[in-house]
Amino acid sequence: MNVRCPRPALGVGFPYLPAISPQLYAAGIIDFVELTPETLCHARLEHGRLRFDIDDDLLRRARRTTAGLPMVIHGVELSIGSAAGWNDAYVELLDRFAQAWEFIWHSEHLSFQTALGPDDDIVEIGVPLPMPPTRESVALVAPRARALAERYGLPFLLENAVHYLPDLPADDGMDELALLDAITERSGSGVLLDLFNLHCNAVEHRFDPFAALARLRLDRVVEVHLAGGAEREGFLMDSHSERVPEPVWTLLDHVVARAPNLRGIVYELLDENALAVGEPAITEDLARARSVWAGRPRWEA
Q1: Span 32-91, pLDDT tens digits
Q2: How confident is the model at residue 1 (pLDDT cuts 50, 70, 90)?
Q3: Which domains does the chain have, with CATH numbers?
């Protein structure tokens, strides 16, 4: 199975957001939906273990709203890079979700958000933290990524993370994109390239994003994320609260022209920010993404 290159290409997608009217999903400007399954669940402790219970009413509403559009999964709770192991509760949720709603591929952030506490208990960090670009990180994450692809028989993608931590430990001059390359090479997983995350990191850590992209195997990119964020106390935040800024559109043009296995572009917003951005602005950004998608090289031909 080629886990990096699902077929057919989907086009331009948008997250499932309860705040958005169903009419937007039925307007013909969205080709597929990206869903975070945790948003349709209630978390609880069962015998000291975290468990996610799917809310059947929320699930039915999501299916009605998205009106039969193809669906991909984008998780936030897996914590694939935690040294003590990934979040079993999320994997169990995905097992149940796979039986309830067919999805075409699934993805997660290349990060960790749990750690071992002083008594060897699992501690929630509260925010995803980046993996250091080291051989140890590759050895830790690659088998997990391969296992997830094999578990569902579907492509699994890893997303480059945004971070504000300078001078992470690194081996052999590796950076975050070299780490992503190394993990996908060993695991057979694909890449979800978040261009706003790349833009944020380039701004905060003062590097050239195009030079960084030149070091990434763009043939492994299956999905691209677009987003916008606000500045806060001098930092550009990955807040999914704004329209897509011009530097990110420029990055999109660059990647679409060079990524032969790209299968979808997703414009990300958080539900709590969608109404402030407004459906007219959302529609404009989706239309612009569709224009870029329509102009992509016809690699398959």
Answers
A1: 999 999 999 998 877 667 889 999 999 999 999 998 899 999 999 999 999 989 999 999
A2: very low
A3: 11-250+274-294 (3.20.20.150)
Length of the chain equals: 301
> 167 vs 70, which has greater pLDDT?
70
